Amino acid sequence: MTMSSSAGGRRRPPTIHDVAREAGVSRGTVSRVLNGGHYVSPAAQEAVNNAIRRTGYVVNRHARSLITGRSDSVGFLLTEPQERFFEDPNFNVLLSGCTKALAGHDIPLLLMLAGTKDERRRITRYITAGHVDGVLLVSSHSGDPVAEELRQAGVPLVACGKPIGLGSKVGYVAADDRDGARDMVRHLLAVGRRRIGMITGPLDTPGGVERLAGYREVLTEAGVEFDEALVVSGDYSRASGAAGAERLLAQAPDLDAVFVASDLMAQGVLTVLERAGKRVPEDIAVGGFDDSPVATEVSPALTTIRQPWDRISAEMVRVLLAQIGGEDPAAVILPTELVVRDSA
Questions:
Q1: Does pLDDT of 270 surpass 90?
Q2: How far is residue 274's CA from residue 153's CA, in Å, rounded to a whole number?
Q3: Which run of H or E residues covers position 331?
Q4: Nearest by Cα to 84 from 234, 238, 211, 221
Q5: Is residue 222 pLDDT above 70, yes or no?
Q6: Nearest to residue 180, comparing CAs of 332, 307, 340?
Q7: Which of the residue ranges 30-39, 137-146, 193-202, 321-330 has the most confident prediction, judged by mean pLDDT?
Q8: Model confidence pLDDT, tens digit, residues 99-140
Q9: Are strands 74-78 and 135-138 parallel, antiparallel or unpaired?
């Protein structure tokens, strides 16, 4: 089909009228297909979709949003300082997976970074004004009001990890952090380690709390007395892993293993152990969590717990789109996997 040209000779973009003419249906039928396909026969819907492909018609999202009241976009909200987004590879993997999953629905994803109170206030105001149809929330800390404010405003919301204190009020998708931690500590015990330290994640996040709980549970099962000197906290950054390793070496010089709650922190741990003349795994075994790209970039390669990032991102998008479509919030917990390499 040939589109008409403007006075200047340029080919004008196809319109909804062109699609209707190509499909042999009314403009109203095309409009209904573009807005969800309600009250349209399968034959008519197929004809319209074929006509859209043939004509190259592109939906005018602004015009459609005026009719539907929707923005046809989704926000990816990271409530962490901007430098953390660029340092931690997990955020980029999750962002890429969510972008890919939404692309299948022709929905763009808007990246929003809100690491300070002022940034969170501005972003919350932007979201509740209707500029996105829903939010994928990443790295929610207890006491952070964003999730509750968005929920009260009626914004469809899915968190990565169970938001502390909100229970079933907010939809979420999470890896089984506690079970993953249990698998790692059982592995360290199975290879003969008994003085197993831990560098936790932030204890105001679900991952931080659940991974510590799994560590303690397995030690109790094995009859190993919990020693506070063997546990220090981190914030998932490389620097906090290094600082945690220095503290553990000072507090527990007989340490023979460390379970580190993220691969990025484990990278900092390996640097400190090498500097202290400790061999890995001969002197001190090291286990991480995530199976991020860092795990195979370090030396020795990191034994770790694999989070199924592709499934997490796909499920976050699925649950969010269901909410946008009117369904209640849902919770999904996905299994993790122990990946044994050279460090433990």
A1: yes
A2: 51
A3: strand 331-334
A4: 238
A5: yes
A6: 307
A7: 193-202
A8: 999 988 888 999 998 878 888 889 888 888 888 999 999 876
A9: parallel
Contacts 24+ apart (CB under 8 A), 144-147: 144/79, 144/120, 145/120, 146/77, 146/79, 146/114, 146/120
**Pair 166, 143: CB distance under 8 Å:** no
Residue 149: partners with Cβ closer than 8 Å, 6 or more residues away: 124, 128
DSSP codes of every residue in 248-296: HHHH-TT--EEEESSHHHHHHHHHHHHHTT--TTTT-EEE-SB--THHH
pLDDT at 60: 57
Region for 192 from its dihedrals, namely left if φ exceeds 0, alpha if ψ lies in -120 to 50, beta otherwise? left
What are the tokens at 102?
A: 């939404």
Find which of 110-124, 158-172, 195-209 is predicted with most confidence, using mean pLDDT.
195-209
Q: Which two tokens stand for residue 309?
A: 């990032």
> Which of these, 18, 101, 109, lies nearest to 58 by C-alpha position?
18
Copy the structure tokens of residue 96.
């890429």
For residues 198 and 234, give the distance between their C-alpha atoms in angstroms, rounded to a whole number: 10
CA distance 134 to 267: 35
Asked whether the bond before 300 is cis by omega within 30 degrees of 0, the reply is: yes
Residue-wise burial string across 137-150, b where 16 or more C-beta atoms lie within 10 A, e elsewhere: bbbbbeebebbbbb
Question: SS in 3 state form for 180-214?
Answer: HHHHHHHHHHHCCCCCEEEEECCCCCHHHHHHHHH
Across the strands, what pairs with 260?
199
For residue 75, give the nearest of 162, 148, 137 by alpha carbon: 137
Share of the chain above pLDDT 90, in %: 55
> Which 3 state secondary structure label does DSSP give 70?
coil
The rounded distance, in Å, linking the Cα atoms of 97 and 100 is: 5
Q: Which two three-digit tokens encode residue 132?
A: 């996105």
